C-alpha cells in the first residue's frame, strides 16, 4: 500500500510501509531551487516528527539526479532555507537517509548525496564539483564531506578541476557505496529494504575524520599562487578543504564564508554570464525550425583550416569527402587529419579503438565530381574572391539539388559568393576558428538570400560538432575579425607611441588573456595581417593613422613569427625571447614619424586596448551584425581566448560603465579623433544609465 504526499511542488513523499521515498521532480535538471530546498527540509522534519518510517531514500525523476544549485538564483538576495542548512537537517536525521543518484550529480547535487548516510549510484552516473567553472567553490559541504570520504587529494582534484568523475571511480574512492543498474525509484525501494535488512550500512559522513594530508594542501596552495594568482575561488577551495579537519560546524562556517566571498566577485558574474550565454547564443528563432539532413560533408581544401574542419566533422560521426587539386596536397591533408585524430585519442576525445573506423569515413579525392552526393560542402581554400567564385560556380553544377554550399571565409562577402550560383538560398558562411577541430566558436554568416532551413541547418551542424554557433550578418570580418581589426590598431599605436610589444603582451596577459596580441600574431603568422593590410590599402581612409608600419617592415624581412623563427620575438628552441631586430625597427619607425616615445603603465595599456575593443563591439551590436551583446561575448570567449572570468568584452564593459568609457574615449580622442570616436549606442547608454546587459534581455 503506497500513499504519495506532495510537500512542495517539486518534492513528494511516498510512504511504503516503514519506508519513505522522497522524490525530487524539478525539470530540466532538478536544480535545488527554493521549492526543492524547502520541500527536502520539510519532508525530513515531517518524517522524523512522525517517527513511523524506519528508512528514507531520496531519488530524482527525469534524466538526472540533482545537477546543482539553481544558478539562476545567483546574484539575487538569498532565499531561505540555505542549502548547507538543509543538508545538515538530512545528516542529523534520526532516521537513516540514503541517496540514489543517476545522470550527473554535480555541485549541490553531489553535496546532497554526501549529506545522506549512504549513496547508491546508477550505471552511467557522473559526479562532480564544477563550481570553480562558475567562479565559485562548493558551498554546501562539498569541501567538508568529500575529504572525509575520499581524502584531501581527491577533494582538491575534484573541486579545482571541476571534472566529472565516473561511477566506477566514485565507487572506488568511496564517494558512493554501491553501483547498480535500474530505475531510480525501484533502486531506492530496494536499497531502503537493504538498509532495513542490515546489508546496506549507513553512517553520518560528518562522524568520519578527514585523513590528514598537509603536504597535499601546502603543495596545492603553492602551485595555485604560481598558476592562478589572478583567480579568486581556487585559493579559497584549499582554505575550505583544510578546514575539513575541524568539527562539521566550524568547517562549514569557513566554507560558507569563502563561498559568500566568491559569490560577491565579478569573476562569478563573468563566468555565470558565460555559462548561460553559451546556451542562449544559439537559442534563437533562426536556429529553430526544419533542417536539412547532413550525413556526408564535402570539404574543399586540405590545408590547416580544411583539415581541421574535416577532423571536426569526422569526430562528430560524419562522412567526409576531402577535395584537393593535387595528389601531394591531398596527401598532406590526409596526413594532417590522421595526426589530428591521433591527437584526439591521446587527449581522450576519441576512443583508441574508434580511430580506424573514424578515419575510414574520410574519402579523399582530387575529383570535385565526388561531391555529387554531399549534403553540405564547406569551401576552405585561401582568401581570394576570384578563386572562391570559381569554386562555387563549379559546385553549383556538381552538387545535388538541396545541397548546402558554405564558405569558411573569415571576412569576404558571402553575397558575392552566393551570386555565383543558381542557388543563393543554399549558400551561407560557416566561419571556423583555427584549430578548427579544437576551437568551439563557429560564426554562422547569413547571406541576403540564405533560406531559413539552411541557416537552421548551420546551427544544427554547430551543435553536432560540439561548437558554439553564433549568428553573424555579412560585413568585413563579420563579428570577431571586424572587432579584432579595430583593437589591433590600438596595440600597434601603443607600440608606435612608446610601449614595447613585450609590455603590451604582458599587461594583457595579466588582465587574463592567454597570450598577448604580438605573441598571437607570431603564432598565427604575421604574413596574414600583412596580406590583409595590402588588400585594404586602396580603401584606407586618408585621415586614418596608419598602424601597420612596424609589422610591414618586420614582414619585409621575411620574419613572419614562429614559423620563420623570428617575428616580434625570437623562437630559439623552446625559448621565446624579444627580437632586438624588431625593436630596432620600432625605434626607426618612431624616428621616421617624429614620435617621441612616452611611457605607458600596464593599466593604460589595458584601458586603451579594452576601450577600443568595446567601442567596435558596441558598433557591431548597434548595426545588427551581431544580434546582442552576449553574442559578441561568446565570440570572444570561444574564439579569441578572452578571459572567461570576465564574461566577454561587453559584459566587462558593464563593470566599467558607459559614462566612464565615454570619458576615456573623449580623452583619448585628443590624440587621434579619427580612431577614438564615441559610438552613439554608448553615448545613449551614458545618458540613460543603460547597460549592455539590458540589451541582452530586449533582443
Ligand atoms: N541551474 C539552473 N539551470 C541549469 C543548471 C543549474 N545548475 N544546469 C543546467 N541548467 C539549465 C540550462 O541552463 C539549460 O536551460 C537546461 O538546464 C539544460 O542544460 C551549492 C553553488 C547538468 C551537465 O554547474 O553542467 O551547485 O537553456 O543545455 O547539455 O555547491 O547543464 O534549456 O533554458 O546544459 O544535458 C553546480 C551546470 C551549480 C552544473 C546538463 N552545477 N549544468 O547538460 O543540458 S553551483 C553545475 C551543467 C552549485 C553548490 C553550488 C549541464 C548538465 P535552457 P544543458 P546538458
In short:
By secondary structure, the chain is of the alpha/beta class.
Structure explained in plain terms:
- The structure is a single chain.
- The protein is α/β, with parallel strands linked by helices and 699 residues long.
- It has three domains: 2-263, 2-enoyl-CoA Hydratase, Chain A, domain 1 (Alpha-Beta Complex), CATH 3.90.226.10; 291-478, NAD(P)-binding Rossmann-like Domain (Rossmann fold); 481-698, N-(1-d-carboxylethyl)-l-norvaline Dehydrogenase, domain 2, CATH 1.10.1040.
- The protein is 48% helix and 14% strand.
- The protein contains 29 helices and 20 strands.
- An eight-stranded mixed β-sheet has the order 13-12-11-14-15-16-17-18, sandwiched between helices.
- Helix 2 (83-91) links the parallel strand 4 (55-60) and strand 5 (97-101).
- The longest helix is centred in the last third of the chain and has 21 residues, at 602-622.
- It is globular.
- The model has no long low-confidence stretch (mean pLDDT 96).
- Bound molecules: (2S,3S)-3-hydroxy-2-methylbutanoyl-COA.
- Residues 28-29, 31, 67-72, 83, 104, 106-108, 111, 130-131, 134, 136, 138-140, 142, 279, 283 line the site of (2S,3S)-3-hydroxy-2-methylbutanoyl-COA (T1G).
- (2S,3S)-3-hydroxy-2-methylbutanoyl-COA binds next to strand 6 and helix 3.
Amino acid at each position: 500500500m503506497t500513499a504519495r504526499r506532495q510537500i512542495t511542488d517539486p518534492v513528494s513523499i511516498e510512504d511504503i510501509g516503514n519506508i519513505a521515498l522522497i522524490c525530487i521532480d524539478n525539470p530540466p535538471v532538478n536544480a535545488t531551487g527554493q521549492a526543492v530546498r524547502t520541500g527536502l527540509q520539510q519532508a525530513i522534519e515531517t518524517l522524523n516528527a512522525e517517527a513511523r518510517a524506519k528508512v528514507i531514500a531520496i531519488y530524482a525523476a527525469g534524466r538526472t539526479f540533482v545537477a546543482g544549485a539553481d544558478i539562476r538564483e545567483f546574484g539575487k538576495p538569498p532565499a531561505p532555507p540555505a542549502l548547507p542548512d538543509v543538508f545538515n537537517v538530512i545528516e542529523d536525521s534520526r532516521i537513516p537517509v540514503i541517496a540514489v543518484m543517476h545522470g550527473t550529480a554535480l555541485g549541490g547535487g553531489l553535496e546532497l548525496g554526501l549529506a545522506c548516510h549512504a549513496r547508491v549510484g546508477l550505471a552511467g552516473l557522473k559526479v562532480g564539483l564544477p563550481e570553480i567553472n562558475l567562479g565559485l567553490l562548493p558551498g554546501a559541504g562539498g569541501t567538508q564531506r568529500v575529504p572525509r570520504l575520499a581524502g584531501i587529494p581527491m577533494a582538491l582534484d575534484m573541486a579545482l578541476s571541476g571534472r566529472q568523475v565516473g561511477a566506477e571511480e566514485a565507487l572506488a574512492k568511496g564517494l558512493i557505496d554501491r553501483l547498480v543498474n535500474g530505475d531510480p525509484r525501484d533502486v531506492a525501494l530496494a536499497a531502503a529494504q537493504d538498509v532495513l535488512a542490515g546489508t546496506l550500512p549507513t553512517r553520518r559522513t560528518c562522524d568520519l575524520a578527514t585523513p590528514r594530508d598537509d603536504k597535499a594542501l601546502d603543495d596545492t596552495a603553492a602551485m595555485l599562487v604560481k598558476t592562478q594568482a589572478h583567480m579568486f575561488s581556487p585559493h579559497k577551495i584549499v582554505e575550505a578543504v583544510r578546514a575539513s579537519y575541524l568539527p562539521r560546524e566550524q568547517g562549514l562556517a569557513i566554507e560558507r564564508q569563502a563561498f559568500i566571498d566568491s559569490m560577491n566577485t565579478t569573476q562569478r558574474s563573468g563566468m555565470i554570464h558565460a555559462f548561460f550565454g553559451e546556451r542562449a547564443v544559439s537559442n534563437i528563432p533562426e536556429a529553430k525550425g526544419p533542417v536539412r539532413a547532413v550525413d556526408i560533408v564535402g570539404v574543399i581544401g586540405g590545408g590547416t583550416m580544411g583539415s581541421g574542419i574535416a577532423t571536426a566533422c569526422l569526430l562528430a560521426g560524419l562522412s567526409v569527402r576531402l577535395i584537393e587539386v593535387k595528389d601531394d596536397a591531398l596527401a598532406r591533408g590526409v596526413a594532417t587529419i590522421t595526426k589530428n585524430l591521433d591527437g584526439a585519442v591521446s587527449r581522450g576525445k576519441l576512443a583508441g579503438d574508434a580511430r580506424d573506423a573514424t578515419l575510414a569515413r574520410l574519402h579523399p579525392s582530387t575529383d570535385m565530381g565526388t561531391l555529387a552526393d554531399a549534403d553540405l560542402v564547406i569551401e576552405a581554400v585561401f582568401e581570394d574572391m576570384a578563386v572562391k567564385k570559381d569554386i562555387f560556380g563549379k559546385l553549383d553544377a556538381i552538387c545535388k539539388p538541396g545541397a548546402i554550399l558554405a564558405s569558411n571565409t573569415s571576412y569576404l562577402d558571402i553575397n558575392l559568393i552566393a551570386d555565383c550560383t543558381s542557388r543563393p538560398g543554399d549558400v551561407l558562411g560557416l566561419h571556423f576558428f583555427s584549430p578548427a577541430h579544437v576551437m568551439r566558436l563557429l560564426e554562422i554568416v547569413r547571406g541576403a538570400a540564405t533560406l531559413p532551413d539552411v541557416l537552421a541547418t548551420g546551427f544544427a551542424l554547430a551543435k553536432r560538432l560540439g561548437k558554439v554557433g553564433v549568428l553573424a550578418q555579412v560585413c568585413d570580418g563579420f563579428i570577431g575579425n571586424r572587432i579584432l581589426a579595430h583593437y589591433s590598431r590600438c596595440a600597434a599605436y601603443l607600440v608606435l607611441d612608446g610601449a614595447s610589444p613585450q609590455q603590451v603582451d604582458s599587461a594583457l596577459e595579466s588582465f587574463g588573456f592567454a597570450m598577448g596580441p604580438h605573441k598571437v600574431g607570431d603564432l598565427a603568422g604575421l604574413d596574414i595581417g600583412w596580406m590583409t593590410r595590402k588588400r585594404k590599402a586602396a580603401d584606407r581612409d586618408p585621415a586614418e593613422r596608419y598602424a601597420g608600419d612596424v609589422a610591414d617592415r618586420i614582414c619585409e624581412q621575411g620574419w613572419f613569427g614562429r614559423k620563420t623563427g623570428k617575428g616580434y620575438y625570437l623562437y630559439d628552441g623552446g625559448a621565446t625571447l624579444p627580437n632586438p631586430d624588431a625593436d630596432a625597427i620600432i625605434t626607426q619607425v618612431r624616428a621616421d614619424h617624429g614620435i617621441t616615445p612616452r611611457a605607458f603603465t600596464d593599466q593604460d595599456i589595458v584601458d586603451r586596448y579594452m576601450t577600443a575593443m568595446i567601442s567596435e563591439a558596441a558598433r557591431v551590436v548597434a548595426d545588427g551584425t551581431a544580434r546582442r551583446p552576449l553574442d559578441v561575448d561568446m565570440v570572444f570567449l570561444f574564439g579569441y581566448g578572452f578571459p572567461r572570468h570576465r564574461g566577454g568584452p561587453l559584459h566587462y564593459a558593464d563593470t566599467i560603465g558607459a559614462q566612464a568609457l565615454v570619458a576615456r574615449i573623449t580623452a583619448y580622442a585628443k590624440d587621434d579623433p579619427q580612431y577614438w570616436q564615441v559610438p552613439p549606442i554608448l553615448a545613449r547608454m551614458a545618458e540613460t544609465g543603460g547597460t549592455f546587459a539590458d540589451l541582452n534581455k530586449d533582443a
